[in-house]
Amino acid sequence: MAEINEYAAYKRRLARILALFVVGFCTALGLLAWAEQHGLSRQWLGPIFLFSTVMIYAAIGIYGRTTDPEEYYVAGRRIPPMYNGMATAADWMSAASFISLAGGLYLQGFSGSSTQPGGLAYVLGWTGGFCLVALLVAPYLRRMNLYTVPDYFAVRYGGHWPRVIAALAAILCSFTYVVAQIYGIGLIASRLTGVQFEIGILLGLGGVLLCSFLGGMRAITWTQVAQYVILLLAFALPVSWLAYKQMGNPLAPMVYGQQLHKINELERQLIDSPAEKQVQVQYQRKAAEYEAKLRDIHGSLRRDREQAQRHLRELKTQNADSARIVAANRELAALPRSETSAREMWTRAMQDSRERAKPLGGLPPHSQPFAGDPNGTPEQKEIFESSRLNFLALIFCLMLGTAGMPHLLTRFYTTRSVADARSSVGWALFFIALLYLSLPALAVMVKREVMQSLVGISFDQLPLWILQWAKVDPSLVAVVDVNGDGIVQFGEIHLGADVIMLATPEIGGLPYVVSGLVAAGGLAAALSTADGLLLTISNAMVRDVYSHEAGHHVTPEQRVILSKFALLAVALFAAMVASLKPAEILPLVSASFSLAAAGLMPVMVLGIFWPGATRAGAVSGMLAGLVVTAYYMLVNAASVRAIFRLAPEPSLWFGIMPVSAGVFGVAAGVVVTVLVSLLTLRAD
To answer: Are 650 and 658 in contact (CB under 8 A)?
Structure first.
């Protein structure tokens, strides 16, 4: 009875702290809005948001510091379900969900095109995955009182190989995921402060390390609760404001349907526009030029280099303006340095030009059910079937990847009981739904805003936010007068998926303090997920591999210290990889989910529900799933195909896109696990 009373008092204390934090943050936000109205410069607002929010997380991380293994790994197993649900939602609302998912819906529409699975697949797949977590995984893992996901494989199957391979799979999928988060951190930090992208990564990385390095899961849990509050406010405020501005009602999910009809009408007008068709012709010409270069890469590269050098010499001879000389130097430096890089760059540029030569700049009509036509020509029917198949394949991969993602499953080790673990999943779904229900509405409203206020204006009247985001990364925002008429056409606007949410306040003409809040929310989403992922990787390296394979003499306290230093090393290496900008956030995250789905989920679920699964079957199944998935993604990567001089077009199985490679990995994992288990059942 005393324990129950103590736990109730503990929850009341937490409720008071949370209420004070919410009131305090909203008060600070109101003061910043007041200061902006009274002349506070934008140059100060961005750094204030970055510094203050990171300091909040750092203070919580320092307060939650610990060397106790139970606290460091599973937060003492005493997190109430509601708070664990908030922390899980923050852990889940990564840079992909907060920053990129609205952009994916903007660019891909609801169900995509012949080459894109569609934005709604991400919403349905990730949400549905939590149902699998609640039904298939979380309660069973919590009942075993473990610390990490690889612990389960060691306990269920015995021996060291199941634990080692599960740990390596956890490291692989988590590292791919954390690179995307750190990329998002650098993007936001550089936009808020104006520093270079690489320096922005280091600034944000300091916040990650302060949260996770000192206190492990204990500090991360309470940091993520605070981060959820910030990212919820950061998402709800601009969405509600934009909905009220466009439709007179702040409840965006309830009223955005009327904007869909307007977008459909605008899309028909743009498809028939002569100016838009001129833009398409110019992109067709560009695609043909790149195709010609690819026929003679050596000669084309030599001619481009000679032409750039000649242009630079002419400018210097004429004593041209220094800005023109600097631009010419950059143009020369931007040329490919080898035939391999030229092949990769020009292949990507050719494919991009071909896409943008299609109506609407290559974007599918926003509300079309699927690409193609089930009642059209044979080619249209094939495109329709391929589009629908890829939509379902991506949902499948994201659902199973969610149920197998190690950093997410570890969150359910932190509750007091199995019942609390189930309740945590319900709370997590509730807190995620608060944002996910508005994501499709946000994409629709932003597209309406772009079509209404940006298309048709003069290039001399381009808003300032376009120039500012182009300085951060030209691949994110670019508006180029392709047809030379001086008027912005829809096909001339390029907005990357990673910029839609972050630029929403500026696109909608909202006060800059809202832009700062949105950036702080994106930073909170990226930091919260990065914290959990880095902890998962370091624990897998030290606790699941080193301590069991080489460091048997290491005490639990020493394991905690080693995990902290491993976390630091992984964070720095991930920052280095992220600085290379390997891909956009959404594709990187999708790849990590395919790896988790194929490498961990089949063997985990079979181990829970099928007593006949053996150690040899588990090892073979995990390896088969990982190898098949990694092979399919790599062999269809543009850089890999360029290095090995393969055809630029991907070599697809059954028309499935590489982003859904987990479909084949899961199938391979299940088949191999079952067959090998049946063959070795007596031996085990």
So the answer is: yes
